[in-house]
Specification:
With 206 residues, the chain is of the alpha+beta class. It has 5 helices and 8 strands, in the order E-H-H-E-E-H-E-E-H-E-H-E-E. It has one domain: 2-Layer Sandwich (Alpha-Beta Plaits). The protein has helices at 23-32, 36-53, 79-101, 137-148, 164-169; strands spanning 9-20, 59-64, 68-73, 114-128, 131-135, 159-163, 182-187, 198-204.
Amino acid sequence: MTRQNENLALERHLVVVFDICSSTSILEDLKQTDHLREWRDVLIGLKNFLVGEFAPPLLQPYKFIGDGWILFLSPDISRVQLFEFLRDLSQVYDMLFDGQIGPLLQHIPSPDGLTFGVDSGELVKLEMNEQVEFLGRALNVASRLQGATKELAGDVGYKALFAKHAYNSLPPEAPIIHDGRAREVRLSLKNLSNNVECDFIEYQVL
């Protein structure tokens, strides 16, 4: 348990929050036909990919949040590595969905796929109830950005929203617009930007 007289422990991370689109409707659909095991197996498949993809500290799966994960990646990860990781993770989910639960669903979910929110910054590390926890703005912003993907134009699935500073800080330095998949968007994140529109980067993963 972290005590008040201890020094503040800070760690800098690139925070990626991702969510499975329409997970509630998928779960309810599978529950009606007694196929919850297959949903569990999809989540295990995603976990196995995350655990095996990069060795720490390049990737640390921090927390499972029911229908997605909070991930910590090294702030030194290159832009190409990050884009390839998001693509590979999306393709793994696509494969698991098509192979294990898609044929079992009574209704095709819309939207489908994964959505991502990404920010970077220093986080406070502490121990709470015998668990390591982290606090910080980057966690809040990444979570809000993931939720804000539903406000984007067009199909929502397989899109990522980056805080602009996090996107531009990824080495190597390169223009903001990358191979036609990225574009600037203006959004307001409630309780974080005081309802003032700010620039973010929308990236089409697949």
